[in-house]
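Why do we care about 3D structure at all? Because function follows from shape, and shape follows, mostly, from sequence. That is the central idea of this module. The next example makes it concrete: a single protein chain, its amino acid sequence, and then its structure expressed as tokens.
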Amino acid sequence: MGVAMTLQQYLDDNRVAYEVTRHRKTGCSSMTAQSSHVPGDSLAKGVVLKWDDAFLLAVVPSTRHVELDKVADIVEGQVMLASEREASRLFPDCEEGAVPVLGAAYGLATIVDERLDDCEDVYFEGGDHRSLVHVTGGRFDRLMSDVTIGRISV
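And the structure:
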């Protein structure tokens, strides 16, 4: 499958240079980092949350977990993990479980962990379990310029 068309279009529309690397199929972000020889702190993962009556995409380093209480404090609302089924419906051109981190491409409000600000390079799922998109930290910051940034992970 490769990179989802929605992600490709969003990256191209925003004139962001990126590279795509392939890796063996993995089932979790820590395995993806290991398989791809990418530092886990530089691999961003998306976690879909239910936020009051809507959805919110939390983006954190793959070595960390979303701290729901911190997200709730920042967005001033109730948050909980969305089900796999709910998340899959939000990303129709992605494989189940391959949650992209560019929520804006899918019309989703997004909150990003501030730890990703310090990364020289950032990698994220391309829409399947075999492709990673690589952008420089500066380009990632540009892609996330309109989202909320905070310390949301442990």
